[in-house]
Each structure stands twice: as C-alpha cells, then as structure tokens.
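Backbones bend. Our protein:
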Amino acid sequence: MIMLNGIPAHPLVIHAVVVLLPLATLGTIAMAIRPRWRRALGIPVALVALAGGIAVPIATQTGEQLQRALNGGGPLVAIHESRAASLLPWAVAFVVLVIATVAVGIRSDRRGPEVSVALQRATTGIAALAALLGIVVTGLVIWIGDAGAAAVWQGSF
C-alpha cells in the first residue's frame, strides 16, 4: 500500500477528485453562462478538469490497495467501492467535453466574427453539455464520498 508521510494515499488522493472535478464544473458553468469568459477561463478550467479526471483512476487504485490492507473493510466499504466504479466513464466524458469546448472556442476565435457564428453556437452548446455533465459528475462525487465517509465514520475501518 502506498503511504505518504505515514498516511494511506487514498484519503489524500481522493481530495484531488473531490476538489478539482467540482471546481472544473463551476468553471464550465461560468463558461456556458458567459461565453466571453471562456477566453480567460478555458485553458485553466480544462487543466483542472484534466487533473481531476487523472486523479479518478489513481483514487480507485489507492482505494483498492487500502481495501486489501484492511481485509475488505466491511459492507460500507463495499458500497463505496461499488459506487466509485461508476465515476471514471462520466469523468472522462466530462473532461473530453470541457477540452472540446475550449478547442472549438479557440478555433472560433481565430476565424473572425462573421465566419464563426456556427462555431460560436457549437462552443456554447458543447459548454452547456459539459456543464450539465459536470453537475452529474459532481453529484456522483458527493454520492461516492458520502459512502466513503460512512465507511470511515461508522466504524468499518
């Protein structure tokens, strides 16, 4: 099991997921509501989303290591693990849509105002989809985290 300064890596790594994905969701919502903000927020939001997305499989791996070290951890840990298994595909889709929002937006900006009306609409549409998916991902993170917190605080460990 990976330990960081004497602490199992899982409770540390999950904080990247818990902070970065909802933060990227807020930035994506801002870009969807105010398309002009995409120029300033786009790349930072995409990088935050990417980092959060990368943290998901790392959190899963360190969680499996912790579960093995605890000989299974009990039924609440099993619930947490079952819920956590659903996050990665949703997180990947969210990251892809955020990156697509930024990429299509940059292309739109380079084309000029008269040519890029369709690209601007596409960017806004993709941003809206990304924002909705970010809300789903944030909900999943809360749902999964609730099960993990219950496992810790209700004595499974």
User: Anything to note?
Assistant: Residues 79 and 147 are 7 Å apart (CA to CA). The chain has a mean pLDDT of 92.
